[in-house]
Every structure is written in structure tokens, then in C-alpha cells.
Amino acid sequence: MFSRCPHCAKQHEVTVEHLRQRRGLLDCSACGKPFDALQFLSEDENAVLADESHYRDGQIAAKRPQTPAVWLVATSLMLVLLVAQIFYFEGHRLTMQPQFRSRLDKVCAVIACRLPPYKNLEELSVSHSDLRVQGDRSYLFSTAVSNQALFAQAAPDLKLTLLNFNGQLLAERVFSASEYLPKPTSLATEQTVEIRLAILAPAAPIGGYTFTLL
């Protein structure tokens, strides 16, 4: 029987008794390194010599693992499915994140897709607000809203709440962006809009108000 050294490709003739005594381990007479003779055991001397074509400069040439095409296709499909699931469940939220929005805008410019209107209330600032009584006993609410985002974004709706002098609710209404802005109802970057809303006087006197951008 024959075995070869995996370190230098030296061929060794071995016997069953020799393998039994050394428990299959041999020390190469050429390079002096130990190796498992059973792993490279063969009955055919020529078969052992033929494998030496895999050796380069005393070392076994590494065989490049071959990945079956089916695994590549399956992995690609799984990746596409994962990305699709992320966008299905988290897509709208991601498009509202400034760090992702700029990248997604570039992608859509290439593949001709359309993102939902950008809207991030944290990037809107209010410079002032006021509620004044008019000569006909009606009220005029006014405020100014600025878009501080790097992108144009949808104009917000506005919820106005009127309170009496005890802080109790008198009236409440939500005004849509189309009620205080001409179309299109959007704010460009660094754009400031003046909001003016006429309010009919309630039965009880107005002692205060609050408003919220929605």
C-alpha cells in the first residue's frame, strides 16, 4: 500500500502492521512533518503519483470550492425577497428618514419610480402664532410655518383648539393643508408660509388656544 505526505507530496510505501503500530500516523522522510497516512492511503502506486499534479513547490495546490449555480440563484432570490419584505413593512418609514431619502431619490431617478411625498413634522418650525378678535366679533388665527428639511415636503394639517378662561375646551377643528394653501399643497426647502384662518366666535368668550401640526 502507498500513502503520500500532504505537505510535500512525498510517496511512502506502508504496511498494515506499520499503520497499526503508529495508529495511522507517519512522519514524512522528506519534510519531517507528521501526517495521517490513512487519509491518503491507496493500493495503486500510480494513482498516488498521479495526484502529485495538484502539488506546487512542495505544497498542495488549494482547490477552489465550486458553488453550484442553484445555490447562487437561491441566495439571490432570498436576498430580493428580504429587501422586498423590508420595503413592504418599513418602506414608508424609511422614505421619511433624511439619510435614506436622498439615496432613494437617486435610485428612483434611474429606475423611474415615485416615492410618497416627504413629510417630517420635526423639520417644520413655527415662528409665531396669534389669535385676534375682529370687528365683527369673529377671530383671526395666524401663524407662520417654515420647512427646514432638505427636501420639499407635504404641508401639514393643523388642529386648532379654543379654550375658555378656565382652560376648558370650547371648540376644536382640524384644517387641512388645502384650506390654507393654494395647490400644490407642498412646501419647498426653506419655504415659509403664512397661515390665516377665520374663526367664527363661539358662544362663550375665548380665554386661550392651542394648535398642533399634523
TrEMBL record:
Residues 1-35 form the Zinc finger/thioredoxin putative domain. The chain crosses the membrane at residues 69-89. Pfam families: DUF3426, Zn_ribbon_4. Keywords: Membrane, Transmembrane, Transmembrane helix. InterPro entries: DUF3426, Znf/thioredoxin_put. The keyword Transmembrane applies. This is Zinc finger/thioredoxin putative domain-containing protein. It comes from Methylomonas denitrificans.
